[in-house]
């Protein structure tokens, strides 16, 4: 993660935070807020931590954002996700939403993501996109590369919109790759090449989610060889790596 620019912190604290808050208040839908709250209250999964990964359904997802720092006002511009079960590797269910942020979108983000200004301006609100994502990912384990960015970003956005703490079950595929191949570069591009996965156009949320899903299936095969077979085993290796057992 790149360091937070000092001038940006000062600008956000003195001006951007209050400006965005005022704009956001005009976009809040109480009806959507209530639907999201109901969805979050029903989030408790029936998944057993001992359930085999082979029997688990995952939602592998990716965010495209206006920057790296959600706590400094960066926002989501698109969400892509693939529903994955290793017994259904054809990826039959997918999710994609373009999100219209409250603040300005830097010009380079349009070039990076391939999104047109008109697409973003006509995108749905964060509330709409988040509600649909919650419904799509219900009763699944989230996967992202790295989850430390994507899940954290969603958590900060949920808090910013006045929602309860978003605390889904999730797996960090970047952590898994580093656990399995500690001496290698485990960024998504290299893993796609390493596993000979078809390279799709990068920084499109759905494309990145699909490539991550294909990488994740390869990592699950490697985990089997190390007897990491379920979410409980995953928590153990996370704990050993961090020096303590933690639910991530």
TrEMBL record:
It is an enzyme of class 3 (hydrolase). One of its GO terms (cellular component) is cytosol. Its EC number is 3.1.11.-. GO terms for biological process: DNA replication proofreading. Keywords: Exonuclease, Hydrolase, Nuclease. It comes from the Bacteria. Residues 57-225 form the Exonuclease domain. Coiled coil: none annotated. It holds the Pfam family RNase_T. GO terms for molecular function: 3'-5' exonuclease activity; DNA binding; DNA-directed DNA polymerase activity. This is 3'-5' exonuclease.
């Amino acid at each position: 993660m790149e360091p937070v620019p000092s001038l940006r912190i000062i600008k956000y604290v003195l001006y951007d935070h209050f400006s965005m808050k005022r704009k956001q208040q005009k976009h809040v839908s109480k009806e959507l807020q209530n639907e999201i709250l109901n969805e979050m209250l029903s989030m408790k999964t029936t998944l057993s931590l001992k359930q085999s990964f082979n029997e688990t359904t995952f939602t592998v997802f990716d965010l495209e954002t206006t920057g790296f720092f959600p706590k400094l006002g960066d926002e989501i511009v698109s969400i892509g996700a693939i529903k994955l079960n290793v017994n259904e590797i054809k990826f039959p269910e997918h999710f994609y939403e373009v999100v219209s942020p409250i603040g300005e979108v830097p010009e380079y983000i349009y070039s990076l993501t391939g999104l047109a200004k008109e697409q973003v301006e006509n995108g749905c609100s964060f509330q709409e996109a988040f509600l649909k994502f919650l419904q799509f990912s219900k009763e699944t384990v989230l996967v992202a590369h790295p989850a430390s960015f994507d899940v954290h970003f969603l958590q900060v956005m949920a808090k910013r919109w006045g929602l309860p703490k978003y605390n889904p079950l999730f797996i960090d595929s970047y952590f898994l790759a580093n656990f399995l191949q500690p001496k290698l570069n485990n960024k998504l591009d290299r893993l796609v090449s390493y596993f000979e996965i078809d390279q799709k156009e990068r920084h499109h949320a759905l494309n990145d989610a699909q490539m991550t899903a294909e990488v994740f299936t390869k990592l699950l095969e490697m985990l089997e060889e190390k007897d990491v077979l379920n979410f409980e085993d995953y928590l153990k290796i996370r704990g050993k790596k961090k020096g303590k057992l933690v639910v991530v």
